[in-house]
Amino acid sequence: MSIDLIRKLCETNSIRWTDHAIKRAIQRNISRSEVKHVLSVGRIIEEYQDDYPHPSCLVLGATLEYRHLHVVCGIGSSELWIISAYCPSNEEWIEEFSKRKEVK
Q: For tag attachment on the chain, is the N or C end more exposed, with fewer CB atoms within 10 Å?
């Protein structure tokens, strides 16, 4: 999975939103334009090669208002699938929300 391909699919608007992603984005007050912006400027911090039905990844970025977002997305059938989006918490993430805290 490459951030360049993610950006290209965003630029060509080859994006599909899962029902889960839409529902959670509404609940979390995250707009589609914010998700698209984060994908265009962010970086991949985790990859999930064994995800079904397509490999996916976690992208970290900031909105234009400097709100950090995590976006889970996958690529399949030449489309970018948005799986979820959320604001990471300090309780679970360190290093500017780029690394999970170790579970004790």
A: C
